[in-house]
Amino acid sequence: MQRFSLSLLLGCLILFAGFTGASAQTDNLASTSNIFMFPNPVQISDLALKTSTGQNATLKDFRGKVVLLHFWSIQCPACRVEEPLLQRLKQNLGSSGLEILGVNLVDPPQAILQHTMANRPPFPVLYDGGAGFSLRTVRLAGRNTAFLINPSKEAILEVPGFPTTYIVDCKGNAVGYSVGVAGWETPPAVALLRGLLADGKSCKVSKAVIPQPIR
After folding, report:
1. What is this structure's pTM?
2. Separation of alpha carbons 202 and 205, rounded Å
3. Which DSSP symbol is given to 45?
4. Which of 11, 36, 100, 135 could be stapled to 68 by a disulfide with Cβ–Cβ 3.0 to 4.6 Å?
């Protein structure tokens, strides 16, 4: 814990602390979809991982798209429940600019590859390829939680459990999150994503090659 960047750790805690003065829309998202919006967009530090096809990928590669940054593990029952929801979401909204990144930083790379080959999700699955990104479990305020840590031992995002999903807009800002299975197919959630995708048309799309999932 002493090696964490204090300013970034505090930023993560503030970012994940919820919101005040919630509008009817955010209340509706929370109650119907288990999705919570931040009061203001928060820029996320870049992360560099490897895909199941062996390619390097960074979050900046997907700038210009709306991204669901989805943290999961193979042994997580709730992740298996949410997986088909995310697959249908990608199939329905992928052509409009939605990308889903399935980030696994707890299982061995070979196990992740085998799982990906068996399930063939329609979106990239990412893991640590040696760049130094990891999840670090800590105990805060009497509870266990985890933080995504970069090579400089700085906390980037809080990941309190699996699945945890951050909603990232086309500019690379976190605008919301979900812990546990989210109702991605509920009307409020679909309306939220379609709104972000419509806003994303004004973003400059990255020219980087987008890593493709295993077929």
Report:
1. 0.86
2. 9
3. P
4. 100
Q: What is the pLDDT of residue 130?
A: 86
**CA–CA distance, 134 with 155 (Å, rounded to integer):** 10
Q: Is the pLDDT score of 200 beyond 90?
A: no
Q: CA 91 to CA 87: how far, in whole Å?
A: 6
**The tokens of 191 are what?**
């309306």
36-to-30, 55, 87, 144 alpha-carbon distances in Å: 5, 32, 21, 21
Give the H or E element holding residue 129: none
Q: What are the structure tokens assigned to 163, written together? A: 């699945």
Type of residue numbered 21: G
CA 39 to chain CA centroid, nearest Å? 18
Sheet of 143-149, strand order: 134-140, 143-149, 155-158
Cα-only R_g, the chain: 16
3-class secondary-structure state, position 19: coil
Pull the structure tokens for residue 35: 């999705």
pLDDT category at 5 given cuts 50, 70, 90 is low
